[in-house]
Amino acid sequence: MPPILGVFDSGFGGLTVLRALLRRLPQARFAFLGDTARLPYGSKSRRTIARYAAQSAQFLVREQGAEFLVIACNTASALALDAIQEAVPVPVLGVIEPGAEAARAASRTGDVLVIATDATVQSHAYAAACRALGLRALEMACPLLVPLVEEGWTEHTVTAQVIRVYLDQLLGEAAAQGLNPDTLVLGCTHYPLLRPLIESAVPAGMRVIDSAEATAETAARLLSPLEGGNLPSAAQVRCFATDSVEKFERLGSRFLDRPVGKVELVDLGG
Amino acid sequence: MPPILGVFDSGFGGLTVLRALLRRLPQARFAFLGDTARLPYGSKSRRTIARYAAQSAQFLVREQGAEFLVIACNTASALALDAIQEAVPVPVLGVIEPGAEAARAASRTGDVLVIATDATVQSHAYAAACRALGLRALEMACPLLVPLVEEGWTEHTVTAQVIRVYLDQLLGEAAAQGLNPDTLVLGCTHYPLLRPLIESAVPAGMRVIDSAEATAETAARLLSPLEGGNLPSAAQVRCFATDSVEKFERLGSRFLDRPVGKVELVDLGG
């Protein structure tokens, strides 16, 4: 049997990470859990986030048999990766370090920009991961992008305008700090759906790095020794959520870029 | 001593209701509670919302001495007004019925439009309250408006454009249903901050009704018999929140239209 990869997010945005994983590991089995009853993690304390994330990780490992975990939630990756690693006996990969590593591979100037949610920016997890790799990073929260994606306005002129406003502000701030950025990291699971609009808004020559893609690449590299045996002819995916299954099913397919199918409701307790 | 009015919201949006109350009851004492640790209520079950709202109401009555409660949260008003009334021995006023009554007073055609959050629309509480008054109401969720207000873009061209997109859709749907609406109800505590943009976007002659204003008017009418004694020379306001005091203090002043001052952190338990 091929290994089961557990993928965890506070909501369903992490389906963009699962989508990237499916492209690289088309014959694996996946269990995805969205802790939709307790989102948003971003407004909660580190301790609460760690408890929720550990419970979610344990569900994927103990009840779904996951042998490898991908934390597709930027907030949980930023604030609870240690707690998750302590809670389960399998390898755990977050989205932030792969994103920072892809930025290092892409950048020539060593100066990178990061756009993310307010909670991720306030954690400064990307800046820290970039600094550890010798990069200078300037982060900016873009709170309107998640609701625009969830409204389905991924190609709307309004969204293009909002992206321009944010990028102008971010580039202005970078210039004021004497930075010369050549790479932009998409530090939120929702942003890959805006990639076409973002790519047409960045200055010529600027590279756009998608943390979801970078994480899937790292996972595929780490997993290749685990692979083997009789692979199924197609990937197997089961999706679980702790609440709001209807919204997950309705919006999830756009994130996964294929039908999410039936989402199973699970109760992780308080 | 003048009575203490307790004002409750899941977040700080209900400060627009407090603002309207302060204009009508400039010498009362107010205690405002935002249950910011547990927002958004909109994605939670009716039972959970009822429990949270009852706990919040009890805090205002038992610990702050509130003699009258205004539920400034549309979701709690829609789903938990009964539970709150059972939980506390003081009069309780929600925002939905005053909004519907103001719409009836304003409308000549009897057809009204309601814009609100997704959770409020899905509860159909405004449609039911309007129907009970002999009005036909068409509701529409406008999920981008709250984040636009919280981003501070209350006068931005992007926001004006988003409002036009939503209103065009709503007016088109009304026409398709054979309705002749002449009144638009703002069914979300954040929307009063968009009133100038909304008023310049509606068709000529359409009345815009603000539930916050309507609720404050009703509260002032109900409270006048309670008033009396030695009134303070100015209103007294204490603000409490269950989490994210910093965001409350930072954004709250715009909603209240005066400094919110120090927000006190309270713990209502799980």
Give your account of this protein's structure.
Two copies of one chain form a homodimer. The longest helix of chain A is centred in the middle third of the chain and has 20 residues, at 157-176. A six-stranded parallel beta sheet of chain A has the order 4-3-1-2-9-10, sandwiched between helices. Chain A has a four-stranded parallel beta sheet with strand order 6-5-7-8, with helices on both faces. In chain A, helix 11 links the parallel strand 9 (236-241) and strand 10. Chain A is α/β, with parallel strands linked by helices. In chain A, 54% of the residues are buried. The first copy, chain A, starts with a strand and ends in a 5-residue tail after the last strand. Chain A is globular, with a radius of gyration of 18 Å. The first copy, chain A, has helices at residues 15-24, 46-63, 74-87, 96-106, 118-123, 125-132, 145-150, 157-176, 195-201, 211-223, 245-256, and strands at 4-9, 29-34, 68-71, 92-94, 111-116, 136-141, 183-186, 207-210, 236-241, 263-265. Chain A is built from eleven helices and ten strands. Chain A has two domains: 4-94 and 215-265, 3-Layer(aba) Sandwich (Rossmann fold), CATH 3.40.50.1860; 96-211, Rossmann fold (3-Layer(aba) Sandwich). Chains A and B meet through helix 7 and helix 8 of A and helix 7 and helix 8 of B.
